[in-house]
Amino acid sequence: MADWNSLYEELENLKKEGRYRPLTVWDSGSDTWMTLNGRRVLQMSSNNYLGLTGHPGLKEAAIAAIREYGAGSGSVRTITGTLRIHDELERELAAFKGTEAALVFQSGFTANQGVLASILGPDDVVISDELNHASIIDGIRLTKSDRKIYAHKDMDQLEAILKQSGGYKKRVIVTDGVFSMDGDIAPLPAIVELAEAYDAFVYVDDAHASGVLGTNGKGTTDHFGLNGRVHIQIGTLSKAVGVVGGYVACEQVLKNYLIHKARPFLFSTSQTPAVAASCLAAVRVLRQSGELIAKLWDNAAYFRAGVQALGFDTGASETPIIPVIIGNPAKTMRFSDLLLEEGVFAQGIVYPTVAMDKGRVRFIVTAGHTRADLDFALNALERASRKLGE
Ligand SMILES: *Cc1c(COP(=O)(O)O)cnc(C)c1O
């Protein structure tokens, strides 16, 4: 008889290694302070960089869209699922990014899958940073193109690969804008220079950079003054934008192509009206003012300096993603648990997501944190560290 024994075994192994994690169920919505098992906990693991999940304007926009259009969109985009609100969102995103066009997907994950699988064929090669996000890796797996991986941010190796790959029709260099585990930024100026020297396309996934880096949160391309020199910019609407969804900002010709080829776009229902409307409201908030982003960076600098002053290793962090590197996986997870006892939620991230000796508790600072919140977290770090040493 069929049974799930092999699954039980694998789960038992995870438990033995201290890597088995039941879901954390929160009693309140995404916010700076949240309720967990009846206790107030300082949230330092959410991607809600600007606190937009609870923004009154976004909530009102969602409610108004439900009243006007209903709860669902009724179909995929290519049949009856493109409502006025979806079209408006894409126009706003293109204006925000300063590109000819933008195309929205259900998530950043499906945006990567849809775009990579559509543009890469058997005569092409994709050249990818070793630390790129899982959705890029999966998107590449869907293609028949050749694939080359370069060591993290290693521009010499990228150039060597470009030199050896003259015979391909298309060459596409793919990188995260901000790397989610270390909080470091891709060397985009060097990547763009190499791409221009070797006639390659540049593809940047700005999931952790849109709404965070660049003027008004336009992203990594703008941050480095490379507007017009990056061919494909992926963004998510799920992190700093505070809702859910993904998009590609690109030339009109690529958008037209994707409308006919990208499978998540063709075969999965479009965003609900409430989602599209609240994303639209969020992008308008970003375009109106850089105030929240300035606060975010101020908080990040303050917290990183505080963590370093306590003697912790924050690795390569240069953004609001601030890892506290502990090392051993079990010790890392224990440290995260101790922090929770002190009232701070910061996720432990261990092998195989990161190297065996590079387990870390990852803090994400947001614009919603006050100085008092950050000091609370720093005190918790100090106390938890003392307990970990005992
Ligand atoms: C989070 C993330 C995604 C996925 O975005 P979702 O909108 O959550 O699906 C894609 N790429 C990178 C680099 C990410 O960090």
Automatic annotation (TrEMBL):
Keywords: Acyltransferase, Biotin biosynthesis, Ligase, Pyridoxal phosphate, Transferase. It is an enzyme of class 2 (transferase). The keyword Transport does not apply. It comes from the Bacteria. Its cofactor is pyridoxal 5'-phosphate. Residues 41-381 form the Aminotransferase class I/classII large domain. The keyword ATP-binding does not apply. Homodimer. Belongs to the class-II pyridoxal-phosphate-dependent aminotransferase family. BioF subfamily. This is 8-amino-7-ketopelargonate synthase.
